[in-house]
Amino acid sequence: MSLLGNGKRMVTVTINKNQYLAEEGEIFLLTANRLGIDIPHLCYEKALEPYGACRLCMVDVVTCGKTDMTPACTIRVQNGLEILTDTPQIIKHRNLLFELYLAEAPKSEVIKEMAAKYGVTKTRFLKKIVHDDPLQGKCILCGLCVRVCEEIMGASAISFINRGPYTVINTPFYEHNPDCEGCAACAKVCPTNAIVFEDIGTNRVMQSWSDTTVPLMICPECGKPFAPQRLMEKVLTKPESGLIEEIKDLCPECRRKYFTLREIRKIPTNGGQA
Amino acid sequence: MIITSHEDLESVRKRGLTKIQPKHPRIGVGTSSCGIAVGGMQIFDRMQELIQKEGYDITLVKTGCIGFCKEEPIVSVTIPGKSQVLLHKVRPDDAERIIALALKGEIPEDLALCRIPDWDHITGNLVYGDGFESVPDYGEIRFFSHQKKVILRDSGLINPEDIDEYIGIGGYSAAFKALNSMDPDTIIEEVKKSGLRGRGGAGFPAGLKWEITKKAPGTEKFIVCNADEGDPGAYMNRNEMESDPHMLLEGMLIGAYGMDVHEGLIYIRAEYPLAIERLTLALDQARAYGLLGKNILNSGFDFDIQIATGAGAFVCGESTALAASIEGKTGRPRLRPPRLTEKGVFGRPTDLNNVETWCNVPVIITKGATWYSDIGAKGNTGTKVFSLVGKVENIGMVEVPLGTSLRTIIYDIGSGGAGGKEVKAVQTGGPSGGCIPVRLFDTPVDFENLNMVGTMMGSGGLVVMDEDTNMVDIARYFINFASSESCGKCVPCREGLKHLLLILNRIVSGKGTRDDIEILKELSDTVQKTSLCGLGQTAPNPVLTTLQYFGEEYEKLIAPEGK
Amino acid sequence: MDEKILDEIIAHYPSQSGKTLGILREIQIREKHIPMDTLKLLSGKIDVPLSRLYALVTFYSFFSLKPVGEHLITVCMGTPCHVKGAEKILESLEEHLGISEDTQDGKYLQTTPDNKFTVEIARCFGACSMAPVLRVDGELHGYVTPEMIPKILEKYGWKR
């Protein structure tokens, strides 16, 4: 056990009978992946609370000789923690879960590759019929998009709809939703690249979300559309945005140009000293 | 009137008693949902019309359900000084005759089911008297004679819409005793000593849960009553609330005092309108007597209860889903720990107990832990109410000491298969439970023994299957139920149950193969082991138990061309 | 739903516990479904995002977004009714009313094209002793057989 500079303690954990030093309190899934011990996962995202829904990261926690299957994203590192990640039971269940995912998201290349990495290339289960699916037969309902939209962006534009096997994700009433800011954080966080959007003309169209359309800001300098208006308004009203008045409406490219030009102009006035 | 002293409570008690045993005939009509369903309300309305029109000197009240559903509508007639008589299968046309005879001090013998000379309400004892000897005694009726009524002590006998009647048979005296003369910790100690375990299905020691909640940091806490009874074929809690709502309120009041909690919630299914109505009325009446609110019974203790309605989601029986639902969210369970006792409703420490668990509390305080723990078996004390339904002769609510065998319940109380058919199995524990074959009917009904045969106690539904029941179809029924009630959060439950259902559909329609049976077993195992919450973890039980005990029925359905 | 009525319903819930579902329950009971406009109105009034309200309405089976017909038939699908043949009752209803089980959202709610009858299923209404049972507009019918269905329907104005 030792103290790190940042006040965090290093403790000993046992993974698959080998001992490692790990940071106390860290999420075990991250610890393992950092140590090069591979555990697959789909619904974990650092910026969000552990959700524990994809069930792929399940490992055995060993306490007093007994094992208990638990998602690795919900385990916190503590001294003496003992984990098994590759028992025949875990592999068996994980492979079956991959089969379920292959049937649920038959068009997802990410899932196919991930499953193949663990030796699962076929599913015995009836594949979902993908017909007019706004998420292209790739959604595995990990909920990351819904959670990012609600918890990080504060927009709550999309949600789970229905329940059980009928669950889908979309906007209320499958209609254009004015709550959407067009930030596309949902698409960025999606592990299976299921969410489709496109900037068409001066609008961003969230095709997966019932074609919700969000106007884009037009850069007064170059005249090109860039970020969604509502999102920019939200960012700019924050005092910490730190942008000076002259450039706040510019697109990132023109902003860069502005700074570069200023730097160039600055050089002679400073007498050539950096 | 606010009750602040023992004298106040006594005066209400006396008033209540005269309502139950007035100086003139009293007629009670069973008007729980089950009674109403078979015409109870029409009988009541007809009688009320007659009595009002003619100005008869008769007390007419609504009563709850005495439990013998098969014999509903049940009407009770009390002639002063004589045994109370229960009439069964009464029709609205009988109303006139019953009233006319009651006025003469008589009863229609052809409708008589049994007579009650005296009744032990546990919190009080009522003597009615002799008479009507030609009618069988309550204890001679097979359906009743093997039962022990602790929770159903008042059901069907008192008017659930009148707090005075509850107080009349000793109600709220346990609360008075607790709040005025007992140390809160002593109450928790007493409940711990009684051995009372959670009646919602898991059987966690109630007193221990109270203690954990009390010790949890924070001053703002909740106690919650889980009244979201969701198992198909189980309606004990509904009956308990419709028949005797104050026993639940009193239990919660005592618990709140023990745990030093000031806010209570009853989370109840929206599909139970009558129970909601009677609980709302009961809450108003309790507040009017100062039994809820500020400075209850002049003890300085404040507590009130609110109703929160569920909206039809079986998964909300899971504690974290239930808390989410109260907060106005979808009932998707979250990871545990933290448990509710630590982080519950709106993040506050929350004690959650089932309706029936709360209903035991006034009895434990009145009679003491030792009296209570003498009922039932070691480690499984007290009684449990079951709804005995399906293909059994005597359908109804049954209360027996824990540890009673399935055989006693199904054959002695239930009189075996309906219409003389042979009983094949019984399903306990609802969709989370399993099917037990006849050869295991000597299994004592308690938490551990039911687990050992692959099923569970659950909330108390006992569905009897006979020789005509197709057990594979039963497995399919439960998987269909669990799948449509899955919240959809985790993949084994959302997708796994769906595929179990598809496979079972295939087998039931005769298109299944031997491989299907193997996949069924393999998938059941994974769903059980990897699901996030109890719903998924237990959902495969009906498949696994039918495969284990009725494997030959699956075999018979396998298509011969299947390898 | 009239805005004033909605305000009255909201006023029944001074505390947060059980508020949202309680309001939705009252709307459902009053209107026999949750109208889209009411849900949108409610979202602004109680400051809950529409997406969350929509999630609730589609998650909980007590709520329905589709209006119901003139007569509402509820078939009990509790275990006791199931073992006594509830499925055949439902099939018979579907056959006679010309509706079919076709669900996109997992909720069974079928209305005849003439808007006369809506059929839904319920888990248990506690009339297990009379299983199988069904309810038409609050009136209970027990010991039902598939053969009895036309006669029951005729009582409510159904014609062959």
Topology:
The complex is a heterotrimer of chains A (274), B (563) and C (160).
Chain A: E1 2-3, E2 9-15, E3 18-23, H1 28-34, E4 58-63, E5 66-71, E6 82-84, H2 88-104, H3 109-117, H4 144-152, E7 159-161, E8 168-170, H5 185-189, E9 198-200, E10 203-206, E11 212-218, E12 225-228, H6 229-237, H7 252-269
Chain B: H1 6-20, E1 26-30, H2 33-37, H3 40-54, E2 59-63, E3 75-78, E4 84-87, H4 95-103, E5 112-116, E6 118-120, E7 125-127, H5 142-145, H6 163-168, H7 173-181, H8 184-194, H9 206-215, E8 222-227, H10 236-243, H11 245-259, E9 263-268, H12 273-288, E10 293-296, E11 301-309, H13 319-326, E12 350-354, H14 355-367, H15 369-373, E13 376-377, E14 380-381, E15 383-390, E16 396-401, H16 406-413, E17 423-428, E18 434-437, H17 447-452, E19 461-466, H18 471-485, H19 491-508, H20 514-530, H21 534-538, H22 541-549, H23 551-557
Parallel strand pairs in B: 1-2, 8-9, 8-12, 9-11, 15-19
Antiparallel strand pairs in B: 1-3, 3-4, 4-5, 6-7, 10-11, 13-14, 15-16, 17-18, 17-19
Helix pairs in contact in B: 7-11, 7-14, 8-9, 8-11, 10-11, 10-12, 11-14, 18-19, 18-22, 19-20, 22-23
Chain C: H1 3-11, H2 19-31, H3 36-46, H4 50-59, E1 71-76, H5 79-83, H6 86-97, E2 109-111, E3 117-122, E4 134-136, E5 139-141, H7 149-155
Parallel strand pairs in C: 1-3
Antiparallel strand pairs in C: 1-4, 2-3, 4-5
Sum up the structure in keywords.
heterotrimer; A: 274 residues; alpha+beta; Ubiquitin-like (UB roll); 6-stranded mixed beta sheet; 4-stranded antiparallel beta sheet; 7 helices; 27% helix; C: 160 residues; Glutaredoxin; 2 domains; 5 strands; 13% strand; elongated
